[in-house]
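Bench notes, bay 3.
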Amino acid sequence: MKIGFVGLGQMGSAMARNLLTAGHELTVYNRTPGKADALAKDGARIASSPADAAKGVEAVLTMLADDPAVAEVTFGEHGIASGLPAGSAHLSLSTISVALARRLADEHRARRQNYLSTPVFGRPESAEARKLLVVAAGETAAVDRYHLIFEAIGRQTFVAGAEPWQANAVKLCGNFMIGSMMEAFGEAFATMRKAGIDRHLFLDVMNELFGSAVYRNYGGLIANEKFTPAGFRLRLGLKDVRLALEAAEELGSPMPFASVLRDHFISALANGQEQLDWSSVALVAARNAGLESSTKS
């Protein structure tokens, strides 16, 4: 399959490489051109613009940080929408707002192009190992058409519905759940420390109780205060919580704990945690308990 890929950060580079490994013909674009060099050595063509990456392909994938970045490469001058052939699809892997997903769907539909929201769950190491969870939404025929792409980048695909924005709602609420778990660990670990109990013992108990890889992995990061290098920066976590609250407000569904998470992410940023992993939100609970951290932010 001829595929374009826009956005070669940690996640995007890993997914693009897996597409090459699966035998797809790949054209890549990144605002910082040097990030595409390694993929070019393995057979990818480097595009001169997002429109060039979309030229003549069956699908173009975007993996970018936020709404403004996705909007710029799609609607901007020399954007994806201007280069994508009619009948081909834009697959957005990014965590974006439900409002932007609707705008993307409308714009591509007007150009006789397809649009699918296909956000993923997983950190960079999961992307490298092809163990991401893909959540797809859009027209059934389009979802079915691109199953080989989903198989090349992830271990399982879930179809959220016929409206693309529904996949983004799943991703935002999923990230809310992960953020809530990290907040819970932060509060529990702070209490354990004040009780004189080893955080790692508590983590062992929780791992046996829940049997969850997410609990094990994030719990380990928080117990060890291993917040660098950041697999997912804290500011992006704040962005996702805000987007979840926006979606909930639109749908008339209160999410009071999401408001707590938002405020704790803001507190973390105010205390210099800009470059740390989003799991470092646990340091807010430690500070509130009067505990010092071994992490210097």
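Next record in the batch:
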Amino acid sequence: LHLFFLIIFLFVEIIKYLLDINYDFTFNREPFVLNNFSNFFLHLFFFQHYADKYSFNGPAWSISVEMLLYLSFAILFFVNKKYFLTIPIVFVVLFSLFFNDIYGSGYSHNAFFSGFYSFSLGCIFCKIYLNNKKLFASKLYNIFYFILLIAELFGYKILFKSNYAFIYSIFFGLIIYLSCFLNKNFLMYKLFFNSWFVYLGKISYSIYLGHVFVFYFLNNFLKYIIYPLINTSDFNNVLKLSVFEAHMYTLAAYLLTIILASFTYRYIETKYYKKI
């Protein structure tokens, strides 16, 4: 799927280049300046987080980090299966004390270390759950979970503006862990595990890798085709939308992203999973 969208964005650059040299089109980002062949090969071999800036399919920067994390944790597991969690636990402590300022980094080694911290927390919470799957049975727990979830959602922006942003991964892991004990008759359980949300979860990787292309396509479709028809004068290559139009634009982009993700999930993503 990553390769599929990488090729699509390569074709986008080729089209931009042809329009530029043949029809004197102007673009917000010149063809093959940022999305050049050097960055293309970084994407191709999963090293794009070592580039200076996000290029081609921007969100794919995290894919290269995750590939290295998958490899690292696989090595840790097979080298020392019995004490697999030792290094993650030590790393979480060291990161929290000395390296928390690089939390959330998206480039170079810092992106890997930040990801290793969050992956480690995920493994720790998973181990805790596997060791005790019946920790909470009280009905009051469901209400407690709801309050905790609301607090976590509202505290998200406040936390990220502070010097303790790294705590967010702990809260996130805790929320996922505690969700394992929700009563099936509780409203939050029915909300989280309804068939629609479960399906969105299945296609979430396709949504993640495809949403930038949808926004890019929709943005340029409006700028170069629709917008000139209704604003023939004073067209300056920038969309000027009202609040209502911006909301409609966003809803349309979300809907198109889900539709595209449904197709790429079925015909690209799972197709090759089965072969592997």
